[in-house]
Amino acid sequence: VHLVESGGGLVQPGGSLNLSCRASGFDFSASTMRWYRQAPGKVLDQYYIAHIGIYGRYTDYADSVEGRFTVSRDNRNNLVWLQMTDLKPEDTAVYYCYAYDQGREYWGRGTQVVVSE
């Protein structure tokens, strides 16, 4: 099982980044997908920042990113994305991709996002 995130980097406040997560080794199309983040010096936030259902029609977001972040998925290619706009310094974190596949949980290793001048 692999979840590989990419797309992180350094961006100025107000900027945008598009994270991607490539999945393999499990039934991606039957899995709900989420993004979590861990800010510097803090534990992994127990609440997701974005959630997407198996068909991609249902999405949900943390209040802190609602209206700025958009989650989407491609079941044919086993990909999930997190489009992030109007980034703020408080969005600085390691972003993790998460999959819930019929009772099994999988995590990626994360991709670093730094929002700074």
Question: How does this model look, in words?
Answer:
The chain has strands spanning 2-6, 9-11, 17-24, 32-38, 50-52, 59-61, 69-74, 79-84, 93-101, 104-107, 111-115. A hairpin with a 6-residue loop joins strand 5 (50-52) and strand 6. Strands 2, 4, 5, 6, 9, 10 and 11 form a seven-stranded mixed β-sheet that branches. A four-stranded antiparallel β-sheet has the order 1-3-8-7, with no helix packed on it. It is built from no helices and eleven strands. The protein is mainly β and 117 residues long. The mean pLDDT is 97. 0% of the residues lie in helices and 50% in strands.
Summarize the topology:
Blueprint: E1 2-6, E2 9-11, E3 17-24, E4 32-38, E5 50-52, E6 59-61, E7 69-74, E8 79-84, E9 93-101, E10 104-107, E11 111-115
Parallel strand pairs: 2-11
Antiparallel strand pairs: 1-3, 3-8, 4-5, 4-9, 5-6, 7-8, 9-10, 9-11
Helix content: under 10%
Overall 3D geometry? globular
Distance between the termini: 37 Å
Number of continuous helical runs: 0
Strand content: over 45%
Largest beta-sheet details: 7 strands, mixed
Q: What is the number of beta strands?
A: 11
**Rg measurement, Å:** 13 Å
What's the order of the H and E elements? Answer: EEEEEEEEEEE
Average predicted confidence as pLDDT: 97
Low-confidence stretches: none
Structural class, please? mainly beta
Key descriptive features of the protein:
117 residues; mainly beta; 7-stranded mixed sheet; 4-stranded antiparallel sheet; 0% helix; globular
Provide a brief overview of the structure.
The protein has 117 residues and is an all-beta fold. It has no helices and eleven strands. The chain has strands at residues 2-6, 9-11, 17-24, 32-38, 50-52, 59-61, 69-74, 79-84, 93-101, 104-107, 111-115.
